[in-house]
Structures are given as structure tokens and as C-alpha cells.
Design a protein that fits this description.
- The chain has about 550 residues and is an alpha/beta fold.
- It has helices spanning about 1-5, 15-30, 110-120, 160-175, 220-240, 255-260, 260-270, 270-275, 300-315, 355-365, 390-410, 420-435, 445-465, 470-490, 525-555; strands at about 35-50, 55, 60, 75-85, 100-105, 125, 155-160, 175-180, 185-200, 205-215, 245-250, 280-285, 340, 350, 370-375.
- The strands form 3 sheets. It has a 7-stranded mixed β-sheet with strand order 3-2-8-4-5-6-7, with helices on both faces. Strands 1-9-11-10-12-13 form a 6-stranded mixed β-sheet, sandwiched between helices. It has a two-stranded antiparallel sheet with strand order 14-15.
- β10, α5 and β11 (about 245-250) form a beta-alpha-beta unit.
- α13 runs antiparallel to α14 (about 470-490) and α13 runs parallel beside α15 (about 525-555).
Length: about 550
């Protein structure tokens, strides 16, 4: 609680003086335990919302804008209003909102903004719940490049509370205009990253990465002060015990205002070392909140679910279910095939009806449930303050993370469930091959996946029959197989260019197979789609083929 209090006394905008004070506090605390730390700074594209205005008939409505949206300039712009009661209207091919400012229920979510931009909207006014919620609407993961800078939306975006929203809807029905002024402090600036290193005694080159962001919206006691406190406490305790493999505890900036700029930059700068040595990424975000009694629905992979369920059952008595990762959080390491565990972890129990409209939008837009409604209604608002933290729940969450991280660093075998990981991959690939039928040639895909699947079975049998001196080789085999599973399950085209922060289906390289049913086989667009799919099938086959070679090389050493 002391760590949380000391961190959440600062408003931690990415790259700000107050954020640096929080980083310095974390650094000095870790060093007081005798832990080695490295605080570095790097360039990042950061977008900080400033004061914005919304005027209708001379009446001012309280509002905020979002990170990485359009700035109007001091004079503002006047736009016609268009209210859409159902967001599904944005999926209607005939819907046209060119030049309008859309009025939309919910939070300023990047997927909705992308659809509005495609439809020709100039602005969006999002009606939140009782409170206005800060958001970032760019899909560009990490720092933009010359190619991706144009993908940052330049719509003029405002968030208003429910009471103001109802009046704005009435104004739209009366076909009134809104005068919108949005201001942002946006550009390249230096942001910090802090890495704490706790060295293992046997496989010291191999490590577990335990990370969370320090930057916040406002005082961010829950998001992410408590997570930083857990990271400090886990590091303090673990540093007192001998470990088989090393632990890196990473504190990022640029999460909230730079779309994961800190973790993405670390990945870009350390790709080869991450690929060679990082065995698992454990993320922590928004823990320890009052009322957060549910710990069954954290983000997880099939590879990491078994150990997560064991630890959560042991520490809390709850039966873990888990849910798949989306394209969010500081999950910047999948391109290197690094498995992940957790992001969001503890949540509020589901209530019917939800206690606040804010909670309803959280459930609806972020697919929360069935047991948890997600984080508290104060998430991403000025109300995320120290009084929202429950000491006993924070202690419970910290114990889960401590146990999980310690086992990953200390167990003789890396606790990755390659059987479940490959079984999950098998289900998706078989379904894709079935859908492809005779449209594309999947013969090599079938061949190399069967080789990979059978080889995994062989590895599992070998591990069960192994002696003590085979542990290092067995860990290399587990790592090699998990690299292929993560690469195929979570990554689209490239290992080196991060996918956008937009939803991706499992095995995204093959996802366009779903589109075959929508095309006439005599249509030229069908032949173009088939060409695209064949190339992706070849790519998946090649990744599997290389995976088989890598595993066989280790087996034959």
C-alpha cells in the first residue's frame, strides 16, 4: 500500500516530470533491496490531450478529447451532428456520414473510430457514462513509421458524460451544428524505461520478463499504481531466494499516451536477445481494486493456462477459466514467439443490471464476463485514486503474481503446456483446411503440421522419460515448440512489424479463408483472394517446416 500511495501521488503523463519522479521512486526502492536497475530514455511519439471545447448554440458542454486524434487548431471547426443509436450502423455499406460529427454511445474505442473514419465522418462525440473516460484511438502499435503514421486517425474526437450527451442528442435531432475545438500536445519526446535484473544461478541467460506500465491517466492508483507496487514487492521477495533462471522486471512508459511505445521500443532494440533468451512474458495491470473479487478471467494462452490455474487455485481457491488475449496491453513480444500470461487480472463481479452505465459499456465493448464486469467504473477517469484500493485484495493479487513468477523462474522445466498449445493450434488449422476445401492447395500445410504435431508428442514422451541431466535440452525443446505456437496463433504477417491494435482472429495468417464463401468462383476478386490465401498457406507451412527442423536439431544434439 505504501508503494501504491507513493506512486499514485503523481499524475504520470508519458514523458512528464511527474512520471519521471515515479520512475525515480521505483528505481530507488528497488536499489534499496540490492537489486540492479537500468533507467534509460528513448524517443517516442506521445500524444497528450489538452483542454477541449464543445459549443452548441453558445452553450458549453464539459468534454475531453483523446490521445492520437485530430487537433482542430485554436479556431475550432463547426460540424453538423448525426446521432447513431446503434453502432452496428457503421457496418452498413449504405450508411454515409461524410463530413458529420457522429454522436455515439460508449467509450472512444479504436475499432469504432476506424469505422467512422472509413465512412467519412469528420468527428465523433462519444457519450460515456456518469464519468468521462480517457482513451487512445490509434491502432498503430508503438512508434509510427513512415508507412503507419497516416493510420493514426485525425477525426476530431470528444468524450462527454451521460447528462450532457442527452442534450447533445436533442440538438442533433433539431439539426443543429456543434462547434468543436480539440487540442493535443503531440510529438516526439524522451520517455523512460526501467529494467530491474535479478540473475539466476543455473540458466542465467534465460529469463522471465515481468512487466507493467507506469504512465497513467490522472493519478492512476489502480491503473497502474497497484501493478507497479506488485512488481516492486515481487522483485523484493524473489531477490532473496536462489533462482534457476533470471528475472527481468520492466517498467514501461508510453502505454496510455503512445500505444505501448515503451515495450514496443524495447522489443525493437532487443529482438535477437528476446528471441534467444526470453521464455515467458508476465504482464500486470490494474490489480488490487476494492470489490475486485473475481480472479478467474485473466488473459491467458493455452501454453500458460495450466500453471495459471494451479497457482490461482492454490492462492485464492478460485477455479481459473481465463480468456484469450486481444490486441491490447504491452503484449509487444509475440513476434519473437514469446508466450504470455495475464494482463488484466482481477475484476469486479458481474451484476445485473450493472451498477453504473460506465460498467455497462466496459462489459459491452471489451467482451467482459461471464463472471467479471472488468475493472471498476473509475477506470481511465479522474476518480482512479488511492481510495479505490483494497489492501487485502492487493495482497491476494500480489501473492498470485509472486507464486506464478517464482515458479517460472525456479521450476526445473519451464512450466509451459506445449501439449495444450499444439492441440489448440491443431483445431484451428484443421478447421481452416476444411473451409479451404479445393480452393487452395493445403497439402504441404497438412504434411508439415502433422510432422510438427507428431514431433511434439515425441518431445512430451521424451521429457516424461528423461533423466536429471536432460533438463537443459528439454527446456530448449519446450521453448522451440512454444515459439512456433505463439508465432502462428498470435501474429499476422511479420515477426518484426507489430500488428495494429485491432482485433485479430486465431492463426491470423489463414483468417482470409473465411472470406471464400462470400465470393463467386467466376469472379475475378475470387482469384485474387485465392492467390492471397495460397501465399499465406505457404507461409504457415514454411514456419511449421522450420519449426520441425529446429526441434529435430535440438533432439539430435
Amino acid at each position: 500500500m505504501d508503494y501504491t500511495y507513493n506512486i499514485s501521488q503523481y499524475e504520470r503523463n508519458s514523458g512528464s516530470i511527474d512520471e519521471l519522479k515515479a520512475f525515480k521512486y521505483i528505481e530507488s526502492t528497488l536499489r534499496s533491496f540490492g537489486i540492479k536497475t537500468s533507467l534509460k530514455f528513448h524517443d517516442a511519439f506521445i500524444s497528450l490531450p489538452l483542454k477541449s471545447e464543445l459549443l452548441i448554440d453558445g452553450v458549453s458542454f464539459p468534454c475531453i478529447t483523446t490521445s492520437m486524434s485530430g487537433a482542430t487548431g485554436e479556431d475550432g471547426v463547426s460540424l453538423n451532428l448525426l446521432y447513431i443509436e446503434d453502432n452496428m450502423l457503421l457496418d452498413d455499406p449504405l450508411f454515409d456520414c461524410t463530413g458529420k460529427a457522429l454522436i455515439i454511445h460508449g467509450f472512444a474505442e479504436r475499432g469504432i473510430v476506424q469505422k467512422a473514419m472509413i465512412k467519412g465522418a469528420k468527428g465523433c462525440i462519444f457519450i460515456n457514462g456518469e464519468y468521462v473516460h480517457n482513451m487512445i484511438v490509434s491502432p498503430v502499435w508503438g512508434n509510427p513509421t513512415r508507412k503507419t503514421i497516416h493510420e493514426i486517425p485525425r477525426l476530431y474526437i470528444l468524450n462527454v458524460a451521460q447528462n450532457a450527451g442527452m442534450k447533445i442528442i436533442e440538438a442533433a435531432k433539431e439539426q443543429k451544428q456543434a462547434h468543436i475545438t480539440t487540442r493535443l500536445d503531440e510529438g516526439w519526446r524522451k520517455i523512460p524505461s526501467l529494467i530491474a535484473d535479478i540473475e539466476g544461478e543455473e540458466d542465467s541467460d534465460q529469463y522471465i520478463l515481468f512487466s507493467g506500465h507506469v504512465d497513467s491517466w490522472h493519478y492512476g492508483a489502480m491503473d497502474n499504481g497497484t501493478a507497479n507496487a506488485v512488481m516492486i514487492e515481487v522483485a523484493r521477495i524473489i531477490s532473496q531466494y536462489p533462482l534457476r533462471r533470471s528475472l527481468k522486471v520492466a517498467f514501461w512508459s508510453g502505454h496510455s499516451h503512445g500505444r505501448y511505445a515503451g515495450s514496443a521500443h524495447y522489443y525493437d532494440q532487443n529482438f535477437h536477445e528476446i528471441y534467444d533468451n526470453c521464455l515467458l512474458h508476465v504482464n500486470v495491470d490494474s490489480v488490487g481494486a476494492k470489490g475486485a473479487t473475481i480472479v478467474t478471467e485473466g488473459n491467458i494462452m493455452a501454453l500458460t493456462k495450466k500453471i495459471a490455474a494451479e497457482v490461482i487455485k492454490e492462492e485464492t481457491g478460485q477455479t481459473f477459466k481465463g480468456k484469450p488475449f486481444g490486441r491490447s496491453g504491452d503484449q509487444s513480444f509475440w513476434g519473437a514467439g514469446v508466450p504470455s500470461a495475464f494482463m488484466g487480472f482481477s475484476g469486479q463481479p458481474m451484476k445485473n443490471p450493472p451498477e453504473k452505465l460506465d460498467t455497462y459499456y466496459m462489459i459491452k465493448q471489451f467482451n467482459n464476463g461471464p463472471d467479471s464486469s472488468g475493472f471498476g467504473w473509475w477506470w481511465h477517469t479522474t476518480e482512479d485514486t488511492f481510495d479505490k484500493i483494497d489492501e487485502s485484495i492487493l495482497e491476494r493479487d500480489a501473492k498470485v503474481y509472486l507464486s506464478f513468477v517464482y515458479r517460472c523462474c525456479h521450476d526445473k522445466l519451464i512450466p509451459l503446456d506445449i501439449h495444450s498449445g499444439v492441440e489448440e493450434l491443431k483445431g484451428f488449422i484443421e478447421n481452416y483446411m476444411k473451409l479451404a476445401q479445393d480452393s487452395v492447395n493445403t497439402e504441404k500445410l497438412k504434411h508439415y503440421f502433422n510432422e510438427f504435431y507428431q514431433l511434439t508428442d515425441k518431445v512430451i514422451t521424451k521429457i516424461k522419460q528423461s533423466k536429471e541431466d536432460d533438463i537443459q535440452k528439454n527446456n530448449e525443446l519446450i521453448k522451440s515448440i512454444s515459439r512456433v505456437v505463439v508465432r502462428l496463433m498470435q501474429v499476422n504477417i511479420s515477426e518484426f512489424e507489430p500488428d495494429p491494435a485491432l482485433p485479430l482472429p486465431p492463426v491470423p495468417l489463414l483468417a482470409s479463408i473465411h472470406e471464400l464463401k462470400d465470393y463467386n468462383r467466376n469472379d475475378k476478386a475470387y482469384f485474387m483472394l485465392v492467390t492471397e490465401i495460397q501465399r499465406r498457406v505457404n507461409q504457415v507451412s514454411f514456419i511449421l517446416k522450420q519449426g520441425v527442423k529446429d526441434v529435430m536439431y535440438i533432439l539430435n544434439e
